[in-house]
Amino acid sequence: MRLTFHLLRVEAHEVERLAYALLELRRSTRLCSQCLAFTSEDPCRLCQDPSRDGGVICVVERPADVVAVERSGGFRGRYHVLHGALSPLDGIGPEQLRIRELIERLQGGAVNEVILACNPTAEGEATALYLAKLIKPLGVRVSRIAHGLPMGADVEYADGVTLSKAIEGRREL
Fold first, then answer.
1. In which band, very low, low, confident or very high, does the pLDDT at 98 lie, cut at 50, 70 and 90?
2. 106 lies in a domain?
3. Is the peptide bond before 43 cis (omega within 30 degrees of 0)?
4. Is residue 95 part of a domain?
């Protein structure tokens, strides 16, 4: 709503400049042929980076998840974007996701670990379990990102599922 009112207040040429920029963004953006993230060049800059570990692939649901993981600074491998999660009630099965492309990447033998960074939702959990069943027979290590309490949270205010996952995913100090 704020954007709408702003656009109605500014000069028409400003709105036209924004419209042109949005059209140009849409025209120049495509999927990376390797990781399937959005990019203006193919392969994307992350897939081109020789300092990244090609033996580890982090699987995420959406292109925005790549940005979030990169922002954390804690991952230096490669990515694979599924473009969704399994959701039979919404008509999203394995055929609607980029699972075939992931399996093809793994069959080359260069990947030794896949980190499943699907969202901690019912759909994300179902997707992670499905992928693990497909990947393990290929001899590739499969891991799942940890779930639990975020830094700065209070235990007393956490919900039961979050606490259960935190206890389940505990690690020795």
1. very high
2. yes
3. yes
4. yes
Cα 103 to chain centroid distance, Å, stands at 16
Q: Is the dihedral of CA 46, 47, 52, 57 positive or negative?
A: positive
Domain that holds residue 40: 30-148
Cα–Cα distances in angstroms (integers) from residue 158 to residues 39, 45, 147, 153, in the given order: 38, 38, 12, 8
CATH of the domain at 51: 3.40.1360.10
Beta bridge partners of 81: 60
Look at residue 138 and tell me if it is in a domain. Answer: yes
At 53, give phi and psi (nearest 5°): -80, 105
Residues 6 or more apart whose Cβ sits within 8 Å of residue 125: 118
How many domains are contained in the chain? 1
d(CA 137, CA 66): 26
The token duo for 90 is: 């919404």
Answer yes or no: are the C-beta atoms of 44 and 67 closer than 8 Å: no
Q: Is the pTM of this model over 0.85?
A: yes
Q: What is the tens place of the pLDDT at every residue in 100-154?
A: 999 999 998 899 999 999 998 899 999 999 999 999 999 999 999 988 888 888 8
Q: Is 20 exposed, middle or buried (0-12, 13-18, 19+ CB in 10 A)?
A: exposed
